């Protein structure tokens, strides 16, 4: 089995799932998988993928795992009671051959509450099945050499005492074993520079801090769940604040692009949330605009945290740190470049929510290639409502 625990996923799946339990328990959703890497043939491995997903659907939370989750300050007891009975249903996921050469299709449909935990482990399964077939003798020494080089860029720089980086690489990791080695190596060698991991299983197992707040699917679902589309971003942030009362206060900024985010992220949200997360577009431009926005809303940017997580590398994170040093707090989440950098091209695979309660939903970020929607008329309407430029 590739996935041996339901905790082998990102923390934000649980923080969002708790919001779903308390506010949207009846929501019905659909997720769809996409491989953005051209020329990848996954059809020979489709039965392996199905077998691993079947095993995933047999897992239940152990009492040790529930005790750990219940010990997190923001997790509530009734959510733990719900998880005690939770199990993913194989009936909700379908893996088939696609229409294009080498393509496979993965679709998840059902209750949001009962399907939200599919995405991350399914992507991890696809990655590991693929790489154990195309790379049966992995270049571990090359991976270790690359990891050491990255860490020493931080450790050997005297001006980076405040640099903090978290590992965010579950969904696109080379393998479970390599992922664990990366976490253990960073914990052992980076000291306070290592902020933690998004992976709850490794956080529990190795005593590091689990990190995460919200993902795009949460704000996307609110397009269908809120009172009207134009107010969906505000509705999502207000519902989040109602659930967590000031905790987990990093807002995701790129579901509709930065312009639309800043229009909604008014003085109330500037003061209420601890900061914002960048996940598309130019990070330096984004950071400058966020700092100007805080200043315009009479908030000292030095009290806020900007989290950067878009296709980051250590050198890029260091550049961003130096740009904003003394002007705000910064933190970095690096995924693929840590957990899948052994010399082989990583797969660019995603699984996105495309419908909620029968209605199309979409992310329209500052990076056009990240847009994923199966209804072009809805996408055009979304752009109009949020005053986004046409494609």
Automatic annotation (TrEMBL):
CDD domains named among the record's database cross-references: PncB_like
PTM per Swiss-Prot/TrEMBL: Transiently phosphorylated on a His residue during the reaction cycle. Phosphorylation strongly increases the affinity for substrates and increases the rate of nicotinate D-ribonucleotide production. Dephosphorylation regenerates the low-affinity form of the enzyme, leading to product release.
Residues recorded as bearing Phosphohistidine in the entry: 216
Residue ranges of every copy of the Nicotinate/nicotinamide phosphoribosyltransferase domain listed in the record: 163-389
Record-level Gene Ontology MF annotations: glycosyltransferase activity; nicotinate phosphoribosyltransferase activity
Pathway: Cofactor biosynthesis; NAD(+) biosynthesis; nicotinate D-ribonucleotide from nicotinate: step 1/1
Keywords: Glycosyltransferase, Ligase, Phosphoprotein, Pyridine nucleotide biosynthesis, Transferase
Domain Nicotinate phosphoribosyltransferase N-terminal: 7-127
Any matching Pfam family: NAPRTase_N
EC identifiers of the protein: 6.3.4.21
One GO term (biological process): NAD+ biosynthetic process via the salvage pathway
NCBIfam families: NAPRTase, PRK05321.1
Family: Belongs to the NAPRTase family.
Name of the protein in question: Nicotinate phosphoribosyltransferase
Encoding gene per record: pncB
